[in-house]
């Protein structure tokens, strides 16, 4: 059975819809693309979504399909101005289209990668990317009734989730409430409108701060508010909420929902604002209590596959020490969030203080995040 047949057999089987709520649905071993594996992607198409937002469609240079969960992100890496720059972008396409993968990027003033992509990424051009990571996915909190709240380019992970649910015809009641500056800034406006007409269980609401040049805009104006939620999504308290957008927006959403009596256990947000990723990486602070004892020790780190080794102080993260030693490890956020630096510790022990970038089952398998792990003995890594 070839890869297409295998995908079709999964997507069309009676249990495909049930499997949507399980991470295993999209983590197919035959096409697995690990978050630590770099692949070369070839741009096959670009689409302007708004005046400053463009979608880049990629296929794998090696021809392999992609497997990921809706809501996950990849880490793209490119040579910009003579140095390697890496940035995380959530995948905007659904995993139901496994032979292409899209990211949708807003050109931001001074944004190194976003400007490079807008200026250089055209059909035929390639870039490198580390595989999908992140736990902001529907499988992390399966629910029949969901409320997706996004602002600006935070729409992308929720678009992937919506496209997947739509294409599989899932029995999921989704309200997708997106905030934009003006109607001209609404990303995926036409496609969302089309989907909501075709799917009775998808309600799309867009609220704009101002009308811009679209003086006949008849949607709600202003910002997201409890009053708007009560009026347009009266059952919001019954819904699993997924939120993505700029940090101030997500804080406001949290506050509005709390005021409205929504159960915080049913609230999920993209825990990292990728647009704010900056370099150089910032070394996470060492927990004070552990630092005192640990500061005294020096340990050896051996890389099993490459045969390299280096020594490091126990108050450093393994990622930072590797960089100092000239060893390149895949990384992005440096805060234990994105999962890019996930690596198996084959021998020895580390103290890891992460921020949600790794799952319990991965920890049980011996994986650790190098950007937020400090050794507590000599260690051997699967690198
Ligand atoms: Fe993001 Fe380590 S670089 S979790």
UniProtKB/TrEMBL annotation:
Keywords: 2Fe-2S, FAD, Flavoprotein, Iron, Iron-sulfur, Metal-binding, Oxidoreductase. Gene3D superfamilies: 3.10.20.30, Nucleotide-binding domain of ferredoxin-NADP reductase (FNR) module, Translation factors. Transmembrane segments: none annotated. It comes from the Bacteria. PROSITE patterns: 2FE2S_FER_1, 2FE2S_FER_2, FAD_FR. Its cofactor is [2Fe-2S] cluster; FAD. GO terms for molecular function: 2 iron, 2 sulfur cluster binding; metal ion binding; oxidoreductase activity. Residues 36-139 form the FAD-binding FR-type domain. CDD domains: fer2, FNR_iron_sulfur_binding_1. Residues 299-383 form the 2Fe-2S ferredoxin-type domain. In the N-terminal section; belongs to the FAD-binding oxidoreductase type 6 family. This is Ferredoxin oxidoreductase. It comes from Caballeronia hypogeia. The lineage of its organism: Bacteria, Pseudomonadati, Pseudomonadota, Betaproteobacteria, Burkholderiales.
